[in-house]
User: What shape does this take?
Amino acid sequence: MPLQEKQLDPALLDAVDVFGGLDPSGKDEALAAAHWRKLETGERAFEQDQEADAFYVLSAGRLKVTQVTPEGQEIIIRYIGPKEMFGCVAVCGGLTYPGTATAVTDSWALGWTRATIGALAQTYPGIALNAMRTMGGRLQDTQSRLREMQTERVERRIAHGIARLVAQAGRRVEGGILIDFPVSRQDIAELTGTTLHTVSRTLSAWQERGVVELGRQKLTVRDPHALVVIAEDLPLKE
Amino acid sequence: MPLQEKQLDPALLDAVDVFGGLDPSGKDEALAAAHWRKLETGERAFEQDQEADAFYVLSAGRLKVTQVTPEGQEIIIRYIGPKEMFGCVAVCGGLTYPGTATAVTDSWALGWTRATIGALAQTYPGIALNAMRTMGGRLQDTQSRLREMQTERVERRIAHGIARLVAQAGRRVEGGILIDFPVSRQDIAELTGTTLHTVSRTLSAWQERGVVELGRQKLTVRDPHALVVIAEDLPLKE
DNA sequence: CGTGTTATTGATAGATCTCAAAGATGGTGG
DNA sequence: CCACCATCTTTGAGATCTATCAATAACACG
Assistant: This one.
């Protein structure tokens, strides 16, 4: 059972931002206080409006954090990759989760109850500072997306969205960069504020031009430079 | 000179979230380390991409935090009111300010250099926790706006934007609630992701229906309930 | 009273959504 | 191994919202 092995691995928290700068004994203490959660593809770590009782760090796999509107429309707030924290609300005063976290591939996460992580943060103030740093980064990221939504046309937004996916989860393959988890056209639409129809049309046009290669829930960027040109709306060279 | 009087006021930081839970001596220490800045209407506390060297709490007045795109379009990230912190980047690892803070009415702010506030946060860990709480709230707020931008039509977004202004800076006046600082149609457009033309048309239609009363850089909500109905897209009663 | 800013309003064009239908794709069970 | 089914994707046509272009009007300030 991989659970046992993982629990014994002392280096598990090493590259995790939230625990950065923590001395080894602190890391051991944190690990000892954590519990493991396995999340099968499609399974949810927590749901929107549910009581925020735990804070997590993803160990392996990938999740998406989504919000649904009262009308039932869904949007993707962000994707979470290995070593990233999620469910931060449990740490910073919120009572309920503002979104739903769903595994998009089989995943493993380390979890701490609200009380546990609170106590840890009390003992090791660095944790709070690190968490704040991460939240600052996310706030800026969200503000950038807001700015894009307000000022850019759909095609540019899609380009920006995919560029972000590439940066976060791109894997070099022969002849391009593959997004390393299943993404549907619908997902991209929910990420960029459009419809799957428009995404499909746009991507097809790009494929025509050799910018990307498409598959079912699969996307390979063949020409990253062209993507940047679209995202930044640079003039084609005359 | 009001500066002197203000500096002596021991209750200045009392209702300020960032310093919540701090013992009186800590507050004195914080106050002693702060410097005052007066900001005339239109003056900027800091500018986008400038080195993030200070952290502020607004004492009186109101600011707007904006971002400009490479193309020169401006959007309003948020308005800051009394007792709110701004320039938080200086505290959480960022090197440059992601936006510009401009006074929309004559304002007074308390400032701390990056080093000073860092030292304070070291001594009083509660400060970091409070700052994190506030940032969590702002992150959620920004995510809500992102969701609105992605899922709602212009009229609803304007309604939501104005509802937010009312909540943040509404002042009861006879026959309605007045936004307590000058807002132009352009401002509302930059806040809701549309053009001043569309804002003007929409507000004029609302005025026709008695929902709002308009003036030059002035807006009074006559019928807050109707505004909610528009914002939530509730059906009109049949 | 001029002047610059802010706001209103009309006409038009274009991007994008909506509606609709058919075409792939991959997994599952017989 | 093949047929079937659910899901995902593509593509077309039309409707609609909203930006854009353009001009005028109202207002505040010196």
